[in-house]
Amino acid sequence: MSAEGIRSRQFSCLRKILERAGPVCHPDFEPSAEILNFISNDCKVLVIGAGGLGCELLKNLGLMGFRDIHVIDMDTIDLSNLNRQFLFRRKDIGKPKAEVAAEFINKRISGCNVKPHFCKIQDFDEDFYRQFSIVICGLDSIIARRWINAMLVSLLVYEEDILDQTSLIPLIDGGTEGFKGNARIILPGMTACIECTLDLFPPQVTYPLCTIASTPRLPEHCIEYVKLLQWPKENPFECSIDGDDPSHIGWIYEKSLERAACFSIRGVTYRLVQGVVKNIIPAVASTNAVIAATCVTEAFKLASSCCSTLNNYMVFNNVDGVYTYTYEAEKKDDCFVCSPFFRVKYMDLPHDGMKLNEFIEFLSGLQYQMKNPGIVAAFAERNRTLYMSGVPSIEEMTRDNLKKSLKELNIINGTKLIVTDVTRPTPLEIVIRFSEINN
Amino acid sequence: MDSNSPKSPEQSEKTKKYDRQLRLWGDHGQFALETAHVCLINATGLGTEILKSIILPGIGSFTVIDGGKVREDDISVNFFLDENDIGKSKAEAVTRFLLELNPDVHGDFIDESLQRIIENNPSFFNSFNVVVGTALSELEIILLSSKLWELKVPLLICRSYGFIGMARLQIKEHTIVESHPDNQNTSYRLLNPFPELKTYLESFDLDSLELKDLAHVPFVVILYKYLQEYRKLFGRIPKTYKEKETLRDLIRKGMKKDENGLPSAEENFEEAIKAVNYVLTSDEVPKEIVKLLTDDNCVNLTTKSTSFWIMANALKYFVEKEGYLPVRGVLPDMTAETKHYVKLQQIYRSQALRDSESVYRRVQQLLQQLNQSADSISEADVKEFCKFSHDLRIVRSSCISHEYLEKPFNSSYIVSNLDDPDSSMEYYVILRSIERFYSEYKEYPGNLDDHVEPDIVKLKACVSKLLSEIGSNSIIKDDLIHEFCRYGGVELHSVSSFLGGCIAQEVIKLLTHQFIPINNTIIYNAVSSDIVTFCL
Amino acid sequence: MIQLFKLKKNGETATKGTTKRSSAAQLRITKDINELNLPKTCTTKFDDPDDLLNFKITIAPDEGFYRGGKFTFSFRVGPNYPHEPPKVKCETPVYHPNIDLEGNVCLNILREDWKPVLTINSIVYGLQYLFLEPNPEDPLNKEAAEVLQSNKRIFEQNVQKAMRGGYVGSVYFDRCLK
User: Fold this and answer.
1) Pair A299, A61: CB distance under 8 Å
2) Which of A286, B465, B490, C44 is 20 to 30 Å from A74 by CA-CA measure?
């Protein structure tokens, strides 16, 4: 039997779902063999994170018919991963997660082609991200979530303020903590994005510095004292704290015990010290399975249109029975990333001989009516502050720019400027286009 | 490890490996897992997903029962099979891959059908702590349910069917000491402080304190003082909203004024104001616990009573004598100077110790009366039991085969749920009907493409029959029946994986006696991504 | 509902005209800085006007115990701003109950009470308030707090001594008068 023959039978279960019509299917759903072909051959999926969620995501995608999958993870495998990251074994400790995970999936699920990237997401540019049909995140970092979110929004193309949907890459995001988890779908530019709902991420537990310093009551207060105040002062290892270095944790443990003893506080344990210093979030296999499964079910729905997708946020908890709750997270009108105010706009200027102060007058004029705009040029290498009237020290240092022409300030066709002003809820990003260039 | 590193408690490899979960269920929960034996019937995609999430955290051992051979269809939904397994024993094949997940875990398999095992070896299931069955036929469910009900072995039956999942727990009785509620109940005993607490609370003279000292008095001291004042004024404790507001106003008036005559916003006073409502009710014995203490198993101990009920009986004796549950002995953080907080904590802790000693003495008497050995319940057990006495739980489910065989005892519950169009009970009825369909026709409705239409008619007949047995006049929409026939009995891996995670966690709850299991049936709908629970 | 299958099956993806966006943290800090509205007692200093993530703010209180002094705070804004607050340290050694000798500052909005809606401006106002109303109840520098509580006059003298440059007890303070 040919390899193709085996594969076509392999997904007989998916075929029933994708090739049979039914009265309660989504009205846009047109069952056909084309859909599975699309999922297997054309729908390129990026998985970010090859940890607890990532391992599950890759397995689920592979068994739901997806074959062209990339995975990015910058971490290597640690012993404490093995209680849930089921694609890794003892012998893999120290190896890159993305590589080991991809190799495992490719071996177990024939026809599946997972391509690993052992690096940071920031190492790739627009062209890399543009190739995917769906991005799924299984991350524990808020910074990385915000970054990929902003990246996908920036790939959107608008024609006359109408979104060109072929430029849209849905983002599916999962997160877990102990027996709690959440999953959500973001259609960049259309539904609430990560930045719209930044408040949903719980802030890290912190204690008032004065409590830590003068009125400690909990063992955590004693550990934070050693971590925040005593370590920088005594600098025992001449470096900053490395939570994975047992000698560092050992030092903090002993000093925390001493401090706790001074105040008759009980309960400093080695496990607690590790937890506080490394900000360890408890994790189990079962919750990861639930959340990753939700993410992939939604990816399958998106790719096939076989039924309506989650709208748009689900929370899960199984401490007491099993509980789910879904609701629609709302898009923020003044979101820094996806608000229409804030879409990158083009600004046509007559010629590059225009002086910066003329440009500011233009921004203050009838069309934009700004009060005292701050202007930063976003060059590829770094940002450059052109002028800010409101901050005396910057004003002084950038005053000379006012008399310079935009050309002299290295502003060329396509340079992007960030303009902020009290009259606008969000900064404006504009791309300059000159009608005329003076040579 | 670096030989120069300072001595720190030796962490075993195992503690490191399981660190992220030990923070949830502790070393004792882990011990319970590692000494347990779980049985899976049928190595479906769902079945192996369940096992995966209990093997990874380190279950003691598992046994897979499946008499089938691996088919091509199986491979596309089951991660623990590959092409090379086609035609081999399914039980054997999945066991091999599952065992690779965790070298600490033992696993074996039986390449035989469930029916034969029950016939040939009736006491077979005795050795398991939990049995999980997936994709069982109606007959198998009935056989297994009656057998395990009799053996008192917990049973979870579950099914992954298209976009729908179902799981049901059958357990005669499950008792939980550590239910891990989101908000742990702390009884401060301010309405009726025990002597040491009373002496301490009254040792403060708030009026004579300077602002800086006043700002570091624990809120319980403040609340107690104004509660006493309120009692003096009105002769009772505040009950209504208005009365509580009056108490809050008293506290507000007690705040020191700053130079401008404005009350200085002291956090401890704010905490006292916020705690009024809670503190006034937190000393009561919660309704759930009153019910538990009057349960037959608590009141009428026998020589077969479990530790839980013996301790519950002793607790009941304590509550009748003292009027309160034992003090928990754990004090939440509050604004306070270290020495006050530590002292207060110590006062509660010593009382907790005295209380649990008193319960322990009663437990010893009971053990003697019941002819059980004195060390069958340790002092530490009693201490834990008392510590969590506000949040004890029991779960008792019905017996599945009773529902299947007789005129269902819970039919009125099913009927009333069916009358509610939003209840999802119709999914339960259809899944039950599909079990019937399978028993009758030996395949799932819509298994073959050209059978979908005729099978809709047949499945409808099964549904109608079941509805009439239940005594429901409800009509289940043809469209929904059609949708189930469209699925043709397929398992979708991501649906199985979701359900597998949920059920694995239920198994862990049953084994550790921590957290609260489902009671007793959940329906998962992957189209709407929600879960409903029925108490059948 | 978005129909990915129809949109992407031909592998056509709009690519034209997209420009790399600045990070949300970068944009937000640009806005925060441009809209700084500081009291006249405060000045900013940017070593590099192009780097808006690292800067200094100097507060010269015109009333209270610290009148006549000049105190410089360094601000470091991280990539997770405004989900996380900036890191603020006092670079001028100061005899103050809520600032320790390493420059750690005990101000609620710098840690436990930080919210993404707060701005650099809110922090500067918070810092300024610390100089007007040092709070001895929740001290970082316990000795200073005790003196403030027991004898305001001695506290005032100590503050003056420190600002003029010299020892308070065994601790030496650099001169920081205007």
Assistant:
1) yes
2) A286
